[in-house]
Design brief:
single chain
């Protein structure tokens, strides 16, 4: 079975190409499928045996199981470690909304990180810090990862402070001319938390009252069962003595 060839997957590209070239209406352009270029550059395999995937790093035979030899290796980039470090120190940066839609997929090629953190069409975020740090590590001599991180982080804090000052001034100017702003997201969250705490406090009070009532009832009825059993035993003895005549 290993030597048997499967030719049907390989014909998918040829069939779609023929259908696109032989159209009924020549004036109407047929849109290519999303996978068309991918299948053209990486055609499907014709054999059923799985080939060994490309090895991006030297495999460790002690850590890698034989059953996972044919699984693709994990791709690790240099930016991954820089991102983990930054977001571990600044977790609230992940809560900021970001626009991830690109125009043509080549937006990153138009960024020039030698000019600083501010790039046209890209808001200030953690990715700016990572790319700027990476550029400094590769283009400035004797620049270590820690030193570049400290420099970029200082610039990042200064820009964030400028944004906060501009936002505060814009709010004060708007309020001066009669604008009204509602509660912030933090204030809304605090109100919801207080409401949930009050609801929980009422529920906890009812539970404590129920537990105390059960405890008091158990203490008041303690020993009553024994007294009832003693009285029943005495009545039974009296009845027995009355029913049995006294022996002389």
């Amino acid at each position: 079975m290993g030597g048997q060839r499967q030719v049907l997957p390989g014909k998918v590209y040829q069939t779609v190409t023929a259908l696109m070239n032989h159209r009924i209406f020549h004036d109407i352009k047929v849109q290519q499928p999303v996978w068309y270029k991918v299948v053209e550059s990486i055609p499907p395999a014709e054999i059923l045996t799985r080939p060994l995937p490309p090895q991006h790093q030297t495999p460790n035979p002690k850590k890698r199981r034989p059953s996972r030899l044919f699984q693709p290796q994990q791709l690790v980039y240099e930016e991954d470690e820089l991102r983990r470090t930054f977001y571990a120190h600044h977790p609230w940066e992940l809560a900021r909304p970001r626009m991830i839609i690109e125009t043509d997929g080549k937006d990153a090629q138009r960024y020039d990180w030698s000019k600083g953190l501010i790039q046209p069409g890209m808001p200030l975020c953690g990715e700016c810090v990572v790319q700027r740090q990476l550029w400094m590590m590769h283009n400035i001599p004797n620049m270590t990862k820690e030193k570049a991180y400290d420099i970029v982080r200082r610039d990042f804090y200064a820009l964030r402070q400028e944004e906060e000052v501009e936002r505060r001034i814009a709010k004060e100017e708007a309020q001066y001319v009669g604008a009204y702003f509602g509660k912030t997201f933090m204030q809304i969250g605090i109100d919801l938390e207080d409401k949930e705490y009050e609801r929980w406090k009422k529920w906890a009070g009812k539970q404590i009252s129920a537990v105390r009532a059960e405890q008091s009832q158990a203490y008041t009825s303690f020993g009553e069962e024994d007294e009832v059993e003693d009285m029943e035993m005495e009545e039974m003895e009296e009845q027995y003595e009355q029913s049995v005549p006294m022996q002389r």
